[in-house]
């Protein structure tokens, strides 16, 4: 669905009549030429204009091969109102989609909004995401912002992604081949060095073609330190997104760059999960909610469009800027399943975008189209290097075990991971009583159907790595019962109230979550039990969790206050050991029932 830019219909904001009339009167100018070629035309201002194609995507996370299970599907709404799932994604298809979309568009620029790397499947993650950067070079990415996951291995490693060179510990992966780094700039306008106060990478970049100039400013979410390990952001400061974008928009404006796009690794949540949902249509309600709404409403009108990410959602919406004019805000889901095609009509006389002529739509990266041969060759080359590790069986399952793709707060895979961490913790300390797992650390599903030659139901090391790619350790700490309850309340209160982060819990821990309530009251008082016994606020419990949670990550500050810490093995080893010890071809693991948290709605 294509959306010409127009006023958003939201219950809490009504645009002024003047803005609405201006928008309505300009819609006819958005029509493309019949042959699909970019128009060089006169646009009512008396000056020639040209249509610039902006192709964008976000949150690729190293998914070079098509993502498995529900992680590799998008939802489409049919004309009769029903929905269907479409298999999508994979860099072979993303490259084909982008190359096809560029045909007939000499003015075309491709941009991304962060998290291209980090939390990646084994094919990319095993090699510190060098394969993904190589793929982005080949498919013609022009520019990207950083995301929070670009900092998973720290600023020094991010600089290597930009500039190239062999890994400081692992070295070069192929004889005679040195990693060349990204051909595109990473933009990090709001990330500065604590000592120098300067951005660690370029804050902005200007695309130029035949006299057309469009500036790009890149930022990640200010809250990145809350969702990345402390080591990953050591020595860095993260600044307000709005203030930073406005600062550099003024700088670009003074340099004569009047057309500006912000690449923002922060996002929102549309009212529908369908990629083709029209959040500006009559009756769409609020359309979109979340942090990006406030950001978009406060970023200077000098910025003409916002490409966003982080929430892994699909939307093409308009949000009014501070002057009340509608402005396009887009996101293309995640894992390369969608790309956004936006037309920016550039007035050569004013050197600015004719805002009312902007139109945009998300498109499915279909797996029915031909694969890009160069991407197939790239995947084959890296797969050959990864095969000795990736193809090793580590366990067996009897059916799909949903994790990232689960539609309920508690996921079967979350339960399985928590049980694995508790088992590992008990091997270190028999007093270990329970385990907690953050939902954001579960990156995929475990799929029963074989994706390679290993056979249905076989879980390989590569598949397990895709589920847990962060190399966190399993840590043990002492928490009082009162601290444990407070941590559960932090799932749905404070910074997590608007977008709850429901911890996955090990076998034996149960409680009731009442989503009809607000804040901490959603965790029903007195419902938290361990093996059927109410949690004693004064008692001490030995609790296992990954090192990210033990550091207070994801807003769980109470978990960061634990005493008597003990550091175990990495979480992937704990998971693999549990799968190996508790399953066989004759007795595979059954998908957990996910019945430990009683949810009231």
Descriptive overview:
The chain is of the alpha/beta class and about 600 residues long. The protein is built from 14 helices and 32 strands. It is globular. The two termini are about 30 Å apart.
Topology diagram in text:
Layout lengths: L2 E2 L12 H10 L13 E3 L5 E10 L15 E5 L5 E5 L3 H12 L5 E5 L9 H4 L4 H10 L3 E3 L8 H10 L22 E2 L3 E3 L10 E6 L2 E9 L3 H4 L8 E3 L2 H14 L5 E6 L3 E2 L17 E2 L1 H8 L6 E4 L5 E7 L5 E7 L5 E10 L4 E2 L5 E6 L8 H18 L2 E4 L15 H17 L3 E6 L20 E3 H7 L5 E8 H10 L13 E2 L3 E6 L14 E2 L2 E2 L5 E7 H4 L12 E8 H12 L14 E4 L1
Parallel strand pairs: 3-6, 6-7, 7-8, 11-13, 13-16, 16-18, 23-30, 27-32
Antiparallel strand pairs: 1-21, 2-3, 3-19, 4-5, 9-12, 10-11, 14-15, 17-18, 19-20, 19-21, 22-24, 23-26, 25-30, 25-31, 27-28, 28-29
Helix pairs in contact: 4-9, 10-14
Distance between the termini: 32 Å
What percentage of amino acids are in beta strands?
25-35%
* pLDDT averaged residue by residue: 91
Approximate shape: globular
Overall number of strands = 32
Quick overview:
This protein has 14 helices and 32 strands. Strands 1, 2, 3, 6, 7, 8, 19, 20 and 21 form a 9-stranded mixed sheet that branches. It is globular.
Keywords:
alpha/beta; 9-stranded mixed sheet; 601 residues; 6-stranded mixed sheet; globular
């Amino acid at each position: 669905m294509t959306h010409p830019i127009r006023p958003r219909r939201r219950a809490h904001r009504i645009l002024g009549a003047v803005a609405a009339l201006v928008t309505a009167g300009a819609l006819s100018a958005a029509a493309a030429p019949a042959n699909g070629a970019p128009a060089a035309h006169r646009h009512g201002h008396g000056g020639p204009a040209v249509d610039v194609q902006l192709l964008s995507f976000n949150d690729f996370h190293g998914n070079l091969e098509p993502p498995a299970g529900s992680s590799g599907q998008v939802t489409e709404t049919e004309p009769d109102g029903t929905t269907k799932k479409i298999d999508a994604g994979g860099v072979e298809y993303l490259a084909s989609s982008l190359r096809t979309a560029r045909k007939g568009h000499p003015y075309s620029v491709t941009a991304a909004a962060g998290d291209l790397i980090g939390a990646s499947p084994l094919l990319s993650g095993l090699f510190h995401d060098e394969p993904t950067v190589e793929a982005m070079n080949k498919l013609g990415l022009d520019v990207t912002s950083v995301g929070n996951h670009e900092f998973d291995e720290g600023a020094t490693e991010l600089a290597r992604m930009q500039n190239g060179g062999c890994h400081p510990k692992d070295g070069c992966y192929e004889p005679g081949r040195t990693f060349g780094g990204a051909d595109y700039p990473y933009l990090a306008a709001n990330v500065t060095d604590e000592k120098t106060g300067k951005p660690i990478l370029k804050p902005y970049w200007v695309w130029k073609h035949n006299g057309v100039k469009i500036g790009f400013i890149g930022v990640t979410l200010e809250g990145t330190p809350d969702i990345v390990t402390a080591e990953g952001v050591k020595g860095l400061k993260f600044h307000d997104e709005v203030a930073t974008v406005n600062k550099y928009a003024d700088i670009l404006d003074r340099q004569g760059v009047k057309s500006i796009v912000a690449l923002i690794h922060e996002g929102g949540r549309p009212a529908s999960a369908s990629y083709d949902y029209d959040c500006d249509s009559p009756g769409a309600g609020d359309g979109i909610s979340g942090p990006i709404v406030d950001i978009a409403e406060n970023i200077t009108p000098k910025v003409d469009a916002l490409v966003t990410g982080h929430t892994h959602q699909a939307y093409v919406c308009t949000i009014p800027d501070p002057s009340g004019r509608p402005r396009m805000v887009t996101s293309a889901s995640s894992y390369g399943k969608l790309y956004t095609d936006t037309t920016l009509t550039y007035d050569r006389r004013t050197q600015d975008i004719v805002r009312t002529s902007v139109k945009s739509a998300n498109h499915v990266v279909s797996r029915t189209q031909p694969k890009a041969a160069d991407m197939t060759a790239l995947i084959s080359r890296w797969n050959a290097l990864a095969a000795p590790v990736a193809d090793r069986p580590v366990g067996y399952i009897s059916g799909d075990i949903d994790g990232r793709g689960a539609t309920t707060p508690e996921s079967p895979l979350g339960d399985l991971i928590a049980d694995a961490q508790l088992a590992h913790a008990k091997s270190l300390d028999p007093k270990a009583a329970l385990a907690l797992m953050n939902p954001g650390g579960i990156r995929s599903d475990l799929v029963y159907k074989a994706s390679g030659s290993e056979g249905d139901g076989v879980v390989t090391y590569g598949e397990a790595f895709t589920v847990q790619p962060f190399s966190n350790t399993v840590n043990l700490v002492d928490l009082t019962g009162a601290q444990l309850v407070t941590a559960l309340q932090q799932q749905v209160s404070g910074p997590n109230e608007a977008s709850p982060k429901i911890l996955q819990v090990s076998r034996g821990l149960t409680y009731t979550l009442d989503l009809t309530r607000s804040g901490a009251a959603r965790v029903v008082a007195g419902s938290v039990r361990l093996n059927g016994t109410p949690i004693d606020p004064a008692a001490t419990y030995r609790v296992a969790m990954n090192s990210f949670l033990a550091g207070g990550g994801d807003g769980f500050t109470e978990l960061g206050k634990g005493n008597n810490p003990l550091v175990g093995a990495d979480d992937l080893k704990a998971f693999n050991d549990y799968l190996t010890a508790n399953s066989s071809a004759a007795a595979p693991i059954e998908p957990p029932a996910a019945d430990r948290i009683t949810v009231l709605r």
